[in-house]
Amino acid sequence: MKNYRKVLGLTLAATMAVGMLAGCGSTATGDTATSQTADSAASSADAATSTAAEGGTFKIGVIGPLTGAAAAYGSAVANAAQIAVDEINAAGGMNGYQVELKSEDDELDSTKSVNAYNTLKDWGMQFLLGSVTSGCSIAVSEETKNDNMFQLTPSGSAVDCVKYDNAFRVCFSDPAQGTASAQYIGTHKLADKVGVIYDSSDVYSSGVYQSFETEAANQGFEIVSAEAFTSDNKTDFSVQLQKAKDAGAELVFLPIYYTEASLILAQANTMDYKPTFFGCDGMDGILSVENFDTSLAEGLMLLTPFSADATDDLTVNFVKAYEDKYNGEVPNQFAADSYDGVYAIKAAIEKAGITPDMSISDICEGMKTAMTQISVDGLTSSAITWDASGEPTKEPKAVVIKDGAYALAE
Predict the structure, then answer these.
(1) Is residue 53 pLDDT above 90, yes or no?
(2) Rounded Cα distance, 94 and 193, in Å
(3) CA–CA gap between residue 288 and residue 285 (Å, rounded)
(4) Of 126, 168, 174, 165, nearest in space to 149 by CA
(5) Are 205 and 139 within one domain?
(6) Residues 69 and 113 in one domain
(7) Fewer CB within 10 Å, N or C, the chain?
(8) Of the candidates 123, 122, 23, 107, the residue with the CA atom closest to the CA atom of residue 63
(9) What is the crossing angle of helices 360-370 and 30-43, to 10°?
């Protein structure tokens, strides 16, 4: 689905600080939490040895939309997580223990996401990789907070996805995406007049737009139209497009998901309106929309942290493994975020000396401290680190659809 050729980095502005609320029972941090984890591990050393001898395993749960309109996101996350787990198990596991993975479908519905969480909890989940989308991730975070469960969302980008200190993310936050998009458009002088079409009923879309609007004032271009739609009215975009066209917008920013974006591109074509379209990570997947004429996406740009045809060994090996396992499908950035997420869990487990026999609360305490101490060389960036607010530090890349495939922008 993606095809990139040239690496192009764009340094993000410092990620926004997130208010931290207690999420894992104890609020101990730093040496105190590390000491607590070490004491817990030491006190259960005999039990851990017995568990290992009996084949004790770590259990990671995945929640995301495996069916429905956003299945391209959830399936990619589940698929890539399985590849990472298979690799890790073949190499000896995490901290010497094998890993089990179980994925549940939330169909892009917050209530079903919570139900999926409860199903995974009954299974014995110790770490949650999810949920995939922001609204579902926020809903589930209330449960993980109450249960003292470590949560790492690969792609939940809304600020509130990591409002509790047991929750971290692999992707960029919405404010970071909006800011970086405005900076890229301004720095590369892509347009003097910009239109925006966004979903005012969606926390992801609204969050990206708000920071984009703020940063646009610093970037030398004018937002000449900013038109919203809602989840109840997302099939006819003729009014929004006409306003952008009448205002002379040379570029239309679309901080929305790929399904709605495919409709916008098709309707713009019928109006003979051909601006540059520019999106964020929610745009990833547009080339896989059923019955969509992908030629209409030619020249579309978006920011992404992943380059599927990068030539480094890690990317080459991952893409080959993914294509081999999933019938030639090329992984998207959601897959890459998920893969990096599993390896981040591994690094934190080993940093904190966590074993499968530890309680969920003790595991959480160890993980939230260790996450701020690790560095992961991943698919989405080298030397990814996390701060106590749950935010990662890494760089996005700008890509453009060219000849029916994604290529890194010149």
Answers:
(1) no
(2) 51
(3) 6
(4) 126
(5) no
(6) yes
(7) C
(8) 107
(9) 140
What torsion do the CA atoms of 396, 397, 401, 404 make, to the nearest 10 degrees? Answer: -90
CATH number at residue 35: 3.40.50.2300
Residue 9 lies in a domain: no
pTM: 0.75
Q: Chain-centre distance of CA 408, in angstroms?
A: 19
**Helix, strand or coil, per DSSP, at residue 360:** helix
Domain count, the chain: 2
Q: In the structure encoding, which two tokens stand for residue 350, read together?
A: 């080993």
- 214 domain-assigned: yes
At 15-40, the pLDDT tens digits run: 333 332 222 233 233 333 333 333 43
* pLDDT tens-digit map of 179-197: 999 999 999 999 999 999 9
Give the separation between CA 134 and CA 361, rounded to whole angstroms: 24
DSSP state of 193: E
389 in Cβ contact with 17 (< 8 Å)? yes
Do the beta carbons of residue 392 and residue 170 sit within 8 Å?
A: yes
Distance between CA atoms of residues 351 and 294, nearest Å = 45
Distance CA 126, CA 118 (A): 12
Helix, strand counts (H, E) of the chain: 12, 14
pLDDT number for residue 17: 30
- CA-nearest of 232, 230, 229, 231 to 240 is 229
Q: Residues 202, 222: one domain?
A: yes
- Alpha-carbon distances of 390 from 18, 64, 169, 327, rounded to whole Å: 8, 20, 6, 35
Amino acid at 13: A
Q: How far apart are CA 230 and CA 409, in angstroms?
A: 31
Q: Minimal CA–CA distance to 187: which of 156, 211, 210, 221?
A: 221
For residue 46 the two structure tokens come to: 């005999």
Q: Is 94 exposed, middle or buried (0-12, 13-18, 19+ CB in 10 A)?
A: buried
> What range defines the domain where residue 102 resides?
30-171+312-382
Cα–Cα distance between 83 and 312 in angstroms, integer? 18
- Give the strands of the sheet with 167-169, arranged side by side: 98-105, 57-64, 127-129, 150-153, 167-169
Q: Looking at residue 18, what is its pLDDT?
A: 30
